[in-house]
Amino acid sequence: MGKPATRPTARLDAGAIIDAAVRVIDAEGLDGLTMRRLGREMGADPTAMYRHFRNKDDLQLAICDRLLGDMLASLEPRDGWRDTLRDMAWKAWETYHRHPHLAHLLSRSPEVLDHHERLSEIALAALTEAGLSDADAALSHHLLVGYTSGFASASAQNTEGDVLAAWRRSYALLPAAEFPNLVRLAPVLFPDAEEQFRFGIELFLDGVERLAAESTRRTPRA
User: Fold this and answer.
1) Which backbone phi and psi does 8 adopt, to 5 degrees?
2) CA nearest 156: which of 88, 92, 93, 97?
């Protein structure tokens, strides 16, 4: 009889470990990621992971940077600042929803990560192109990051299903004399998360455009 077949050992480098970690998290959630579980996924000794990452926290930072790098690579060349920022927001939405178990971790990732810095550079360039002052560009950048990461993270992890429809029905049954607006608007409250996100991004872009126009009026001509 021949020797029993053995599972091939995966090539053990940092990139392969990150790929395997993302697979484990997508399938089992963030709590499912351990070095032991990662070792089983890769067919390797779990202690070998520590040659590339100091600990689990270090690995999680690398995972966030990888996802941000994927987001960066997916950006398409755009002619104007509005299209650039809109594209960034929607690519972020897609990334969060592609990896819902990583959404919260990604939303809290530090902005000093390499790909985070590169994305921030693109966003700040677009906001400057829009005509904002340096101070307004900085504030607008943080608002965009906060809204995008917060909303996308929350919606990616949302499993409420029919709960929103139940809330609409509940509001519709309130006493109209006491809650006239809730009753009147009940049919359109709690819309689809993607629709809410789209509305918020367009409102943000309109706000940037108005702020830039006001800044131009305030700046005296030379």
Assistant:
1) -65, 140
2) 97
Q: How far is CA 175 from the centre of its chain?
A: 39
Q: Which residues contact 54 (CB under 8 A, 6 or more apart)?
A: none
Q: CA–CA separation, 190 vs 167, rounded Å? A: 8
Task: Please give the model's pTM, rounded to 2 decimal places.
Answer: 0.86
Q: Is residue 90 a contact partner of residue 76, using CB atoms and an 8 Å limit?
A: no
Contact call for residues 27 and 6 (beta carbons, < 8 A): no
- Tokens 């390499």 label which residue? 114
Residue 165 sits at φ, ψ, to 5 deg, of -65, -35
Q: Which residue has the tokens 């131009």?
A: 216
| pLDDT tens digits for range 25-80 | 999 999 999 999 999 999 999 999 999 999 999 999 999 999 999 999 999 988 99
Query: What are the residues whose beta carbons fall under 8 Å from the beta carbon of 124, sequence distance 6 or more?
Result: 137, 138, 141
What DSSP line would sit under 56-75, residue for residue?
HHHHHHHHHHHHHHHHHHH-
| Radius of gyration, CA atoms only, the chain | 23
Q: How far apart are the C-alpha atoms of 203 and 213, rounded to whole Å?
A: 15
3 state SS of 221: coil
